[in-house]
Amino acid sequence: MIKAGPPRLEQIFQTYIPPLFFVTICTIHRQKIGDVEAAYHAFEAYVRRARDEFGVGVERYLIMPDHMHLFVRGGGDFKLVQWVNGLRRAISVALGTSKKRPLWQPGFFDHVLRNDESYSQKWEYVCENPVRAELVVRADDWPYQGELVVIDRA
After folding, report:
1. Rg (CA), the chain
2. Cβ atoms within 10 A of the Cβ of 50, count?
3. In 3D, which of 94, 32, 85 has the Cα closest to residue 63?
4. Three-class DSSP labels, the chain
5. CA 45, 66, 73, 84: dihedral to nearest 10 degrees?
6. Residues with Cβ < 8 Å from 75, sequence gap 6 or more?
7. Other Cβ atoms within 10 Å of 91 Cβ, number
8. What is the pLDDT along the chain (154 residues), one digit of tens a residue?
9. Cβ-proximal residues to 24 (8 Å cutoff; 6+ apart), any chain
10. What global pTM score does this model have?
11. CA distance 144 to 120
12. Under 8 Å CB-to-CB from 137, ≥6 apart: which residues?
């Protein structure tokens, strides 16, 4: 009879946790989004649909007039590039932008977070963006930010 593997194998072969990405998406030439509120509603609709249909979780996010930041995690088959392209397309459609005059710069910045400290440092920087841009006095006053799901950062 073959017994189960030694208990130490659980320490070596740990369960795979999909990566948590910190993503920054910018408009082309940092042009201002004409209707940030419409972009915000399109963002939330896309993210909620991705959560409900595909198990993609967006935790904290912030939408500025010329860029956005978010923390996202998908399942094992999650393709970040396709997801971001879909998000940009959804916002562009909601704002009525055309392919002749694109809204988003090609590509985006992504970083895999390795621990909770990195997450906290990134969020502290991000949430102060509207204050640094002199759009609000307090970071909490910026209306185009939120937290949609709680993502395990263990």
Report:
1. 18
2. 20
3. 32
4. CCCCCCCCHHHHCCCCCCCCEEEEEEEHHHCCCCCHHHHHHHHHHHHHHHHHHHCCEEEEEEECCCEEEEEEECCCCCCHHHHHHHHHHHHHHHHCCCCCCCCECCCCEEEECCCHHHHHHHHHHHHCHHHHCCCCCCHHHCCCEEECCCCCCC
5. 70
6. 18, 54, 55, 56
7. 25
8. 555 555 555 555 555 678 889 999 999 999 999 899 999 999 999 999 998 888 899 989 999 999 999 999 998 789 999 999 999 999 999 998 877 788 999 999 999 987 766 888 888 999 999 999 999 999 999 999 998 876 666 5
9. 67, 68, 69, 108, 109, 110
10. 0.83
11. 19
12. 131
Q: Which amino acid is at 8?
A: R
Measure the CA dihedral 24/134/47/37, to 10°. -130
Locate 106 and state its tokens.
């090609």
> How far is it, in rounded angstroms, from Cα 112 to Cα 125?
16
Tokens (6 digits) for 2: 């073959």
Token duo for residue 33: 């989004």
